[in-house]
Amino acid sequence: MNPLVANPPVATPFFFYLLAAVMIVGGILVITRKNAVHSALALITTLLAQAGLYLMLYAPFVAGVQIILYAGGIMVLFLFVIMLISIERAQKERQFNKQWAVGIAAAAALGGLFIAVYTTRTQGRVLFPQGRVSYVEGDNTQRVATLLFDRMNGTYMFAFEIASLLLLVAIIGAVVMAKKRI
Amino acid sequence: MHAMLDISTLHYLVLGAALFLLGVIGVLTRRNVVIVLMSIELILNAVNLNLVAFSRYWQGIQGPQALHGQVFAIFVITDAAAEAAVGLGILIAFFRNKETVNMDEVNLLKW
């Protein structure tokens, strides 16, 4: 028997559909709530459910980064900014713009494109894999670190350094934007 | 039978597409800039989900060292952090000038 198939699946369909439902409901709440704080809390729920999906995909490091950096860092930044600006006025105003129908039509066209791509069959097979893919978990974090940091095998070391430069530019840019007088 | 019940890469792709569409609808229809930025985060997360799902798929073919999708997802998260910081900085500057967070009133560069 194929050893890839022999491994018992940790990820059960039940958890996938549960987390997927949480994500979809959270996403709908994000784009429909009047109060920006409610939207932020719904987005945090979505991000945490997505971290669960990362765990089901055997990506524990990305799941940890998702929780610490996204749900913990970026969303706190969002909540800070929501506290700095006054959201009372925005709540009383109209929530959707005048061209909302066109926007939804464009999104529907994009959805049709997705459906067309995902159901395209070439030689009787869909383009994207449908069978279960299972592999031994291994040492995921070490391998990610090898790809990122190793001097010999580190494929992404240069990109990592560029990313740190990007963050520096973003810090300076954020300070320049938010400060009243430089 | 087994293949019917199991969760495949395609399941994750469809979920990612649904989240992407929710984010696109949020960006195109909402007026509150904060919620538009959150919708952009939704879009980035949908892409990340696809990347990690594909990484899982390639691990099944090439072995456990094929983690390029996960590394790319980490880079996308870094980008999202930078984008959120700069975007919210711009939002604060905008709010200071116009006393509103309404997307329709962002017209300082129009003529």
Q: What features would you describe in this structure?
A:
The complex is a heterodimer of chains A (182) and B (111). Chain A has 182 residues and is mostly helical. Among the domains of chain A are: 80 residues, Up-down Bundle (Four Helix Bundle (Hemerythrin (Met), subunit A)); 43 residues, no CATH class. The longest helix of chain A has 25 residues. Chain A has a two-stranded antiparallel sheet with strand order 1-2. With 111 residues, chain B is mostly helical. Chain B has a domain of 67 residues. Helix content of chain B is 77%, strand content 0%. Chain B contains 4 helices and no strands. The mean pLDDT of chain B is 88. At the A-B interface, α2, α3, α4, α6 and α7 of A face α1, α2, α3 and α4 of B.
Instruction: Assign the CATH class of the domain at 12-91 in chain A.
Output: Mainly Alpha
Order of helices and strands of chain B: HHHH
- Mean pLDDT rating of chain B: 88
Strand content of chain B: under 5%
CATH topology of the domain at 12-91 in chain A: Four Helix Bundle (Hemerythrin (Met), subunit A)
Output the structural class of chain B: mainly alpha
Order of helices and strands of chain A: HHHHHHEEHH
